[in-house]
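agent: user wants the full assembly modeled, not chains individually. Plan: 1) parse entity lines 2) check alphabet per entity 3) run joint structure prediction 4) return tokens. Steps 1-2 passed, three entities, 930 residues total. Proceeding.
--- entities ---
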Amino acid sequence: MSALLDLFAYWAFAILLMVGFYAVIAKSNLIKKLMGLSLFQAAVFLLYISMGKVDGGTAPIFQAGVDNALFSNPLPQVLILTAIVVGISTTALGLGIVVRIKEEYGSIEEDEIQKIDQR
Amino acid sequence: MLAAPVLALLAPRGLAWAAATLVSLMAFAIAVQLTILVLAGQVPGYFMGSWPAPFGIELRIDDFSVLMLLVLTGASTVALIGGRQSIDLEIETERQPLFYSAWALALAGLAGIIVSADAFNVFVFMEISSLASYVLIAGGPDRRALPAVFKYLIMGTIGATFYLIGIGLIYLMTGTLNLADMELRIHEVGDQRPILVAAGFITVGLALKAAVFPLHVWLPNAYTYAPNIVSVFMAACATKVSLYVLLRFDFFVFQQNLTQHDIQFAAFLMPLAVAAIVVGSAVAVFEKNLKRLLAYSSVAQVGYILLGASLVSVAGLTASLLHMFNHALAKGALFMAVACLATRLGGLRIPDLRGVARTMPLTTAALVIAALSLIGIPGTAGFVSKWYLISALLGMGGLGIMLIAVVVIGSLLAVVYVWRIVESLRSLENAESNKPGEAPMMLLLTTMAASLANLWFGLSPALPIELAQRSAAALLVHLP
Amino acid sequence: MITLFSLFLLVLLVITAVAVVQTRNLFAAVMLLSIFSLLLAANFLLLDAADVALTEAAIGAGISTVLFLGALSLTGEREAPRKGPRLLYLVAVIAATAVVIYATFDKPAFGDPQAPVQTHVAPWYLEKTPEYIDIPNVVTAILGAYRGYDTLGEVFVVFTAGIGVLFLLASGPGSGSKRRGSRLTEVGQVTGLRHYLVPRVVGRLLVPFIILFGLYVQFHGEYGPGGGFQAGAFVAAGIVLYSLLEGEKKALDIIPRKVLMGMVCGGALLYSAVGVLGMLMGGNFLDYSVLLDNPVAAQQVGIILIELGVGLTVTGVLLSIYHAFAARGRA
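--- prediction returned ---
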């Protein structure tokens, strides 16, 4: 059972990765692209955290009176905490750019913007 | 002293040009100091928070790092010293403090990448520098910078995320993030699939950020529509730092531990490098917009750098690293000249340049010298690196001869597009929209200095050659 | 049991993701993205990542949604129908997925305590934290102390995004300096959602609790899940709620722009200052143990201080970005 979950977790990561990636490259709407980017990054978070899990473990927080507990790995969690914040910073900046593009071009569809620029 | 990159970050509101320039100068001074240390044989290291690696984050400086640091801090300082009027022209005064803040952040981010010896730390600083670059590029008056920077943001973030996946996979197999530690542990797990895939992801991710053909598509528009001084900074540094990480990962961590890796590496990168050289130069020939022409030329130069690296020999790698240094000099100077021109000209297309040789003789001279360096005329820095590249190729038999032909073709194409620029500059008619007179003093002086540096390092290239050779040797030391 | 639940959650996650991509109503997409974040947070919890779950929920489901909605209000809700070579992209993407799945076959088994990840660096953290830092939450210990440099970098990423958005939205139509307040816009600014009684009453009740919870999370991060980032997100969310209810002008009265800027820069500076202080007192950069006589206590103090810096900057940046978007719409 655990082996199934094992592989499935990694496959879920692969599928999510590709869903996000598809959105980024195939969609023309700039905001959709940003959403795809968020999904793409979320998949990576899932990968890292899945790696850190120990069977029968628990969150890596010491509790008074409980000795010798089995903990899951804290390091990937730290990395992903950072990555989540980085991700949202990028998204925020991206949204700022999109707002400006809308003001300057009147559209946030990539193909329309290209047409405007080529005129 | 290694906290310099961090100090460079302390740029909150109210920071004017002066403070940013001061910080950049300090960083440059520190880089020089570090160079002296390294040349004397030391390898300074530093543990953040006093926690030993691999539990804490370690900084490490070696020949390669120092070479890059010199380029980075030098370019930033030169651009800032000369750039004030150029920035005044393109960015409103109220926004300037934020602009300089972003510049300082970009400088710090790139510096942080160079000195770090921890893979995840590199990611964090890579994002700092990337976000800051997006802000800088979008700062100019040309609205086309906005879609350009959006594209750069998307591609850059994908690249960074790929990189993250790669080091995640490595972490999965080795349990560490410290580069030196990684190198040891990969040895044990060697050829398993996740490592190979990890190598792939890291390479592709960094290639995106370094504008390696065919992932270079964000670069031309980003360089073209950015404020001129920003183009100087970006062209000289941004892609090079990503290349730095790529080479370091590849040679330091992967090379000796994956069998056949050198063949794979070469087979993968060499065709891309060749394509970059040929396509980049060819497109540049037909370009009318001066900045975009130079941008495509940059794509070609990245090709040269990779070509040297893909040879996986000390000679090839030396040429490659040398070219990183020299291209930064040449392109930096060229874009500075463009900034000079922009202060007086109505537009930056080739027809707009007509007659400028007479109205702005000094700027033209600077531009021409830098352009000669780009082509690789003897006496300039560019010649030195091309010479090294060709010597490295000579030792490679039939394939080498073909590649030499490619290098020569690329250089010839460069002659063509440089000639188009020069021809317009020297033309007897004047483009109407140009104002008479030379560029502002500081800008002009720094541009000339940058150009002359090309000559200097062309005629006495001992320092960069030494650094490049030692770096190459160090990177390849583990090869069987 | 847990396994089944995990599988279920993962499937839901994938379905939601596909839905986000497919729907053409962007407002619905944002809501689905929010649900996705929540599911992801639940998943993280099942995988023993409590701090990460909290962060993902606060930032992914919370703040990210606010930012997207803010942008949407300025750019429009519908996505144009797609033209172009869809098939090509689909094929490329499927090929890439195959590559990634190929890579999974050699991985160490899921949850295996003997995997390299678990045996190399991690046990050291778990063993040594009581000795060096003596706080229960190991994640905070790593975040704040062992890998404090990364966290410093992270704070600066947030800072960069903040000044980036401010820089970008400081020019162009609708920027503050050029606005001429018509009577209509002023009224709109002041009243917010005043007409709607229920949200106002409930919302106003909630706001102090949200902020209080944010403060709790901020200072409690050493003992349980929490810390500066989550706290910053919570406090910002509380104030955004207030701003939506009472009108932006009132929110700006409470925390004017200058104070926000001060928070944004101050937080980052505080963090760096602690680091430099460590250097001045004899240790390396970001070495807290030299700050006080008792190195263990010093570590704790150091962590509290830097977390405070983090919280300040995050709150400041998130609020600044929100106000930047909100102000745009008034033009």
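agent: reporting back. Chain B touches chain C through 59 residues (CB under 8 Å). The first strand of chain B starts at residue 45 and ends at 47.
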